Amino acid sequence: MISGRLRFESSRATEFVDLTRRIRDEVQKSGLRTGRVHLQSLHTTLGLAINENEPLLLRDFQHLLERLAPGDAGYEHDDFARRYEIALDEPVNGHAHCRQLLLTGFATLLVEDGKLVLGRWQSVFAVELDGPRHRELAMQLDGDFVEQVEKPDGSQEARLVELELARQLMVDPDPVALPMRRLMEAGGKRLRPKLVQLTSQIGPRHDALRATSLAAAVELLHNATLIHDDYVDESTHRRGQPTVAAAEGAERAIAVGDYYFAKATRLIAEIGNSDVTTTMAEALEAICASQIDDVALRGAFPGDHDSYLRVVRGKTAALFAAACASGALLSDAPPEVVGALKRYGDRLGVAFQMADDMVDFSPSSGKPVGLDIRQRVLSLPLIYAAEDRLVGAEVRRLLAGSLGDKEVGRVAELVTSSDALKRVGDEARGLVDEAVRELESIELDGLRPTLVSLARSAVDRSA
Amino acid sequence: MSVQILDRELERLEGLWADGLSDTYHAYLESVGDHEPQAQPKLALAAALIEVGIRLQGLGGRAAAPPTLLMGDLCLARASRLLADTATQAVQVAFAQAIEGLSAAAAAGNPARPVRELLVHAFSATA
Known about the structure:
The structure holds two protein chains of two kinds. Chain A is an alpha+beta fold. In chain A, strand 9 and strand 10 (241-242) form a beta hairpin. Chain A folds into two domains: 2-145, Jelly Rolls, CATH 2.60.120.460; 155-459, Orthogonal Bundle (Farnesyl Diphosphate Synthase). Chain A has 18 helices and ten strands. A five-stranded antiparallel sheet of chain A has the order 1-8-3-5-6, covered by helices on one side. Chain B has one domain (2-123). Helix content of chain B is 70%, strand content 0%. Chain B has six helices and no strands. In chain B, helix 2 crosses helix 3 (40-57), helix 3 (40-57) packs antiparallel against helix 4 and helix 5 packs antiparallel against helix 6 (115-123). Chain B is globular and about 40 Å long. Chain A binds chain B through residues 172-173, 175-176, 228, 231-232, 249-256, 258-259, 261-263, 265-266, 269-270, 272, 274, 277-278, 280-282, 284-285, 287-289, 291-292, 295, and chain B through 12, 54, 57-64, 66-67, 69-71, 73-74, 76-78, 80-81, 83-85, 89, 92-93, 96-100, 102-104, 106-109.
């Protein structure tokens, strides 16, 4: 049996705080294979619920609670003249207690094969009814555990980055830190910091702490760009959670993105290596310029292969390349090694984006199929399907019109029935081969197998 | 002369030059006299791009439409690269802290000090 507390800050009076990812992480960390996770709210104005994380539905739930226990209905609990031993800061919250009565304060979740058993649309929520506040859930995990074995796979470095990210977010003001923390805790592959940490071991001057600072800054920078991207793309969800723009509004999203853009550049400057600072600044400039091209190209949706490569090189690959180069620069690696690693990162970044495009057509990915089509995002499978001899004409006709559910479904069907996905997969694997070849002529101090395996796994993700 | 030096730094931002960036740049040029003469134009342009960039984004006010936000983002990124090329570490850090302060205030809905005042102050940062 393992016991613990899940702690979080709510940010609004009524709020559905999605804890699914955190509970999944706790299960994974614990090594629980088969068993149960018991959750218990430690508050009388905080409930638990298992339901779908869809922003409009969450608003429906909120409205339902407001109708059943309106805030202004007049509650005897709020008549302080009739109560004894009232704290000075006693809140007026009779409505919140009544609303909690309609929910549950307990939940038991099943675990099978080391994974939380949840339906496709189920998320686990703590339901804040009297926020914003600091909250705690008691949590117990029981059942059959496996013994945790320390793996020599960079997990120690990964933990250092997570600690550094947590440390950085801890000192930031809540209005910016809370949305960023939610985004970070929702997941992400942390590939870019991993690349920084690996390449920082290549030169003669390996400093794990400086590498960790740089890796964390790169991850913050990446997430800052995602926050602005999501507003630009009108995305409602990322990593299964509402985007910052959807949850907090565009104004807040812009401010949070700017804050972490600035903070990341400051952390990089504070490392004190001017080559690293310049490399990262150039990458950031390339990302922003490509974002502008990406949006401009949506007028000619789905675009062509050359435009796609140009945008992806800036939008995605520039940061991969900069992560690889800056890690190597930090360790004083020779220029030819820095150059080769930069090219490795570039090829890997483009291949990664191609694999990401393919996920949009995978029903088992956990993401809604056809999101890129709906948002008219540049996507190589769509470009290839539009060029296809058999389905191309219909794809082009559908993409030229308005895209409702029916049209999006049909386009997705046409893409999967053509050889577009196979072509994209082959091209991505070809780029990974190119990336790996870049490593052949340089001395990597035993890190070649790890970098090769990382490149292969980045594109081999059907789900 | 300084405008010629900056020509390539204005790539994709040429339209902003006539639309207020030039005036803002010249205003900052008056505040960089303590820096190396060859660094002065780039430093002044970096500050001007930050001021214009966050205005374009609508930071602290109403959010800009996506294409305008992206142009604002490019201004900030270009400024960051100019500072990386030209400024001392202390000045780079001071500029980043100024933007952190402005965006934290915007996120909280609090008033912030005027941008120009913050950036002019950042020029004088020393290690």
